[in-house]
Specification:
Uridine Diphospho-n-acetylenolpyruvylglucosamine Reductase, domain 1, Uridine Diphospho-n-acetylenolpyruvylglucosamine Reductase, domain 2, 3 domains
Amino acid sequence: MHIQHNADLQPFNTFHVAARAARLARFTTAEELRELLNTAELKDLPRLVVGGGSNLLLTRDWPGVVLLNEVDGIEVVEETADHVIVRSGSGVMWHEFVAHCVGKGWGGIENLSLIPGKVGAAPMQNIGAYGVEIKDVFDHLEALRISDGEVVRFSGAECKFGYRESFFKREGKSQYIILNVAFKLAKHPELHTHYGSIKQELEKRGIAKPTIQDVSDAVIHIRRSKLPDPNVLGNAGSFFKNPVVPANLAEKIKAKYPDVVSFPAGDGQVKLAAGWLIEKAGWKGFREENLGVHKDQALVLVNYGGSTGSAIYDLSTRVLESVKEKFGVELEREVNII
């Protein structure tokens, strides 16, 4: 067990902002994690568990211990003629897991290709893209309960999935650390190609009968054309959630802006595209010194190099206030703020 002191956190967040942690340690198994949690030097310190650091904005130094999740491994735990339940360590990179499953012909997560981060963050955020969310393919997960070191199994119902939400972001926050996640994938999958621009991309490629590999390739191309690579330009992907508003407010906005991008959300609610709202509020392509809003995707705040997390946070506040003033819509940050 190795514990670093005054550790540099810049390599562990995709915004690439400078910050330090009083202590930093890595774990690859439940046993290593228990040992760290019970170590006298760390036991009473505030804890921050970090995976890929792709949904994180550090606005300050961390006064406690950062625990880097490096739980590895992918294995099949159950298989039938139609389905496979495949379990991944929470420290596996999400896209590596998707590519592994697509390569095996197991369908259900191909629309989630190239999403940054690690597998452990997927159920926490109920990540989603192009008409698919984690809850659609989730089977179970195992998490270590911090209070007693017990490994607890959670079903989908127990995870209480919502839009970019789960039990682990609400009442279970800071009480559990996810160790592995299992997904039920299809051997004869039903493809989801009608959401966003997947269908157009497949048509452009002359593919009439796509495979899950074709869908994955199309999603990767679309994401690369719209979103900046965090290895090149500091960002955390979509910074804001798409807001869900009452239908009467959506109609009021549509009367003034007929091109508003919206989707039915049920129960008299409508989901609006946050990127459209931010762009219409004039923020797309905005740059101020070494930070700004991406020129191709208004949902993405970027660090051009040397910006602080607090400055990025302040910019996000200005965006929130601007959208509220123009449309009467309150946006919510999707990124975890530390």
